[in-house]
Structures
1.
Amino acid sequence: MVLAPFTYRLGHPAGAEFVRVPVGFLTDFASIPRPLRTFWPSPGGPWDSPSVIHDALYQRGYVESADGSRRIVERSEADTIFRDAMKVTKTNGVSLRLIYRGVRLGGRAAWNTYREHD
C-alpha cells in the first residue's frame, strides 16, 4: 500500500501528462518470480516506484493531463512508461531490459483482467 502520494510526469518533470498515485493505492510492486528475487528484490530496488506507476496504469488504463482530461493508454504504452520511469530511477541497463521484457511477455493477462472490469 502506498503511504505517501506521488505524481510521475511523462517526458520531463514539467510534462503536461502524468500518473497520480494516491495514499492507499494497492500495489504488488514488480511481479518478479520468486527464484529471481535474489537478483531483483521486490520491493527493494530502484524499480519500486516505476512498478507502482505501472500498476496504476494497468489498473486505470489512462494518464491524466494538466487540463483535467484523461487519455486512454494501450498496454504497450503503459509498459514503455514503466521502462522510461526505470531510466529516471537509474535502474541499471541489464535489470531494466530484463524487467521490461518480463512485463512485455507476462503482462497481458493482468492488463486484460483490468480491462474486463472497465
2.
Amino acid sequence: MLKHSNLQVAGGSVHVVESGLEHDEPILFMHGWPQDWSSWTRILELAGERRRGIAVDLPGVGVSKVQAAPARTWDIAELLHAVVDALGLEGVLVVGHDIGGMAAFSYLSRYADELAGAVIMDVAIPGLPPWEDVRRNPTTWHWGFNAFAELPEILVRGQERDYFDFFYDAISAHPERITSESRDRYVRAYADSRALSTGFNWFRAIPQNAKDNHEMAAEIRPIVTPVLIIRGSKEGSVEPHVDGLRTAGFTSLESAVIPDCGHFAPEEQPELVWRHIEQFADALPRAAVRRNSDHPLREAP
C-alpha cells in the first residue's frame, strides 16, 4: 500500500509517496519529464517488500506546489535534500530517471558523503562526456525547443496530451506500457500553467547545469560513493556515460542495460529495472536510518 503526504518546504510543499516500513533502508526516486511520481508506481511496490521507497513529485509539478520552483538541478537537489532531512533519513540511495537523473547527479555531487549510492537512468549528464555528442544528436531536438522562452508554453498549452504522447510513442520500445491512464495523469501533473513552465524551465536551465557540472568535474577529488548507470537497450551504449563519470572523479561505477527497452525504463521494464537496483542496493554498506515519522511538517494530502 502506498502512503501519500505533503511535506512543507521553503516556499510550499513537496508531494511524497512511500512504500515499505519506516525502519527499512530508504530509496528516493526522482521522475523525469514529462512524468510525475507515478512513473515509479510498480517499482515502489516492489521496493516496499524489503525497503522504504520514497517517490516525489519534483518541485512545481503534480501535487508539489512551490511558489518559485527551482529549475537548476543543483537547486532541485538542495530542496530534495531538505525533504530527506525532514524525513529524518540517513544513508539514502537516490535514483533518478531523465531530468530526475540529472537532479540525482547534482544531489550526488553536493552530498556524496551522505548517500549510500546513486542510480542514474536514461540521461546524459550536462557538461560531462558524452554530453556534446548527445546534444548534437538530432533526436534531442526537443531540448532546444523546450528551452525557448515562452514559445513552448504558447504552442503546447491545451495540447499537452498530443505533445507528450509523441515522446512516449517515439522513444520507447513498448509505448503500450505507458498506459492511457498514466498519460492522463501526466497531463494533469503539468496542466497548471506554472507546472507546464516548470517542466520547460528544466530545459532552460541545462546550460547552467552543464557549467555547474563541468566546474565540479574540474575539482581534484575522487568520489567513492557507488554509482549505477542504467540505460534501456534502445537508448544507445552505456559505456560512454560510465567513462564520463569516471573523468569527473567517480571511482565506484557499475552499469546495466535493460533489454527490449527504450527511454521510459521504469514503466517499460519495471521488474528488470528493480532487479538491478535491488542487486546494487544489496551490495551497499547498511547505513543507519533515523526514525522520524511524526515530523511536524508532514501533512496528509
